[in-house]
């Protein structure tokens, strides 16, 4: 069988990561969390005191950190210059700064190159989740999914993940990040014309996984 490439895009809190990981595991495919890569480069910028309000300062060092993603869906990993950063990339500080870093074209060019190389070398194929996978990174993907959900459903899921977080503050932060990601000049968050849109607001995770698995099997 030929390798199958699946692109899963959408805003945060729509269930992209849980869905993508489960679909990859079920179908024996590799898995890539591209948000983790942008978070990793952001973590490096913060750790090295780069002024992230200055795009030219970010651009000047965008090539410096070595970012390596492990693509086993059972145990995805991410390192920066050999350091495991799976924990530190999920802090509120990184989350609040990642949109500014990911908007810089030099950062996107660099990370996009890593993504294409990983997709090309996945033996059975890969599920790649992000914001611009179907539109920019892998425009020839065999299947493109665009996940959506109401702001309420997304904030409720995120607050569940971040135990005890205030739901209104969570919703505001989510909406703000999506606006920044959707309005940037270089490959914004967008649905590809040929993507299948799935509204997950009233679906369980199992239902979303089942839906995507069926769509992949139709393509194989
Ligand atoms: O998916 P996650 O919430 O971890 O993504 C973190 C951030 O990384 C997004 O808010 C966005 O700024 C950036 N990102 C991106 N392009 C992608 C994936 C993530 O710009 N393909």
TrEMBL record:
Transmembrane segments: none annotated. One of its GO terms (biological process) is nucleobase-containing small molecule interconversion. It is an enzyme of class 2 (transferase). It comes from the Bacteria. Keywords: ATP-binding, Cytoplasm, Kinase, Nucleotide-binding, Transferase. GO terms for molecular function: ATP binding; dCMP kinase activity. InterPro entries: Cytidylate_kin, Cytidylate_kinase_dom, P-loop_NTPase. NCBIfam families: cmk. Belongs to the cytidylate kinase family. Type 1 subfamily. This is Cytidylate kinase.
